[in-house]
Specification:
The complex is a heterodimer of chains A (257) and B (295). Chain A contains 8 helices and 9 strands. With 257 residues, chain A is an alpha+beta fold. The chains are: A alpha+beta (257), B mainly alpha (295). Chain B: Keywords: Membrane, Transmembrane, Transmembrane helix.
Amino acid sequence: MTALPTTTQKKLGLVIDLDTCVGCHACVTACKGWNTQNYGAPLSDQDPYGAASGTFLNRIHSFQSQPEPVNDVPQLAQTTHFPKSCLHCEDAPCVTVCPTGASYKRAEDGIVLVNEDACMGCGLCAWACPYGAREVDQVAGVMKKCTLCVDRIYNENIEEEERVPACVRTCPAGARHFGDLADPDSDVSRLVAERGGMDLMPEQGTKPVNQYLPPRPRDTIQAPMAGEEDILAPFLAPVAEEPAGFMGWLDRALEKL
Amino acid sequence: MNPAPSVIIFSTLSGAGFGLLFFLGLGLPTVTGFIAFGFYLIAYLLAVGGLLASVFHLKNKKNAWKSYSQWRTSWLSREGWFAVSALLLMAIYAGLQVFLDTTVATIGFLGAALSLCTVFSTGMIYAQLKTIPRWNQPATPAFFVTASLAGGALLSNNPTLANILLILLGIVVGFHWWKGDSRFAEAGSTIGTATQLSGKVSLWEKPHTGENYLTHEMVYQVARKHAVKLRIIAIVLMTVVPVLLVLIFGAHHLPVLLAVVSHLIGLFAQRWLFFAEAEHVVGLYYGAHTAKQAT
């Protein structure tokens, strides 16, 4: 049954640091690579060498924001790169709408998965997701979504440091963190507590497990310039008019000769 | 939302078909023999034809039979159960009327109730989605049921009932449009809640230069300048023309046929708008719905 488990023993998920993400799309590529070559139907491209198309389980959006002035001092506008994949919600609306039982949330670790052998490709779960985390693969005709690399994190055939999702493993900026968010002492839970982790679209009532860390505020702006300033003048001024120290003594001594 | 023709055809035709089954099940009219055969042929062609059309939008049709497994949680699964049990029960009721001249009212009432439950479930598939605020309102199942009843009343040749239900349908659809226009702001999702970034937020760059499944399916943008025109066309063809035809000509075959055709074309327009005007909150991540957000 596609009923949600009342509780899960673990809440495995990601913590994504919007302050650190540089928007390089390495996680997008690593995700597509791993999930095309491993578990389930491959993530197809419709026109691989032409216009951008195809199935992705992780996409990076970029936003610009103009923070409100603080004490009438205008704040610098910011660019934020925003990776977005399945948030493995506690109250996942995509699971309960599924008519075939293909979608489910695991009671042991909270991962939301699709059993592709039971999916009929109706797409209703993609409609139910507010985050755009699910896409029907246009070739396989089944629903694809982030598996939290369930075939890596428990995989004893790969090195221990590899047993994290492909996106986390590859991130060169260290902006992606994987762990158990049900355990208050885990690294990810401490990170969330320290930096103020945020739920995306809390008004949708999905209770996402994945957390986003806000970008830190940027430097403040200096006072506006009037247009008369010579900004190079301080750098062009002579450093020392009179020699000082040993050179000064030598200079004076030689003068007296 | 992308208005898929298969889903629009399904919900319109099968709605009318189940509406006709509802009135036949109630004994309005009680028909037997050859006339009953004609009525049930139309009802089953509409209801089953519509259901078949809905199968066309499945990307993996071989697993469609599994959709009967999740009736405890899924409205789509419930719709399947109600549809099959209504069609089977009404087939027994129809068979007795056509071949044995016998009317078993109990089976008819039960079949009528199941027919109505089918249409209600169709409405709930859309109304349950919090992600599409325009659909997430009680008027959604209300207009699905009213449309089905109005179409059924026309097809079963109940002129007075048809006119009352057609006018009621016009009111419910009008309310759905009026309420729907403010639902996105009421739901409170904005680009700010979606990104949790502070200040004035706008999309700087999409994840991809091209379209993807999500933008094609859920960030479909209708040319809004036509929306008002289509609403007028829908209400005129769906309600005004059939009501006038029935009032002027009464329950004669040709005017009623014209009324049914006009009603269904109007309903197609209403259903097309139902999808095309619906704003999915995922559009916020693609910089859409800027005018609809709460401020």
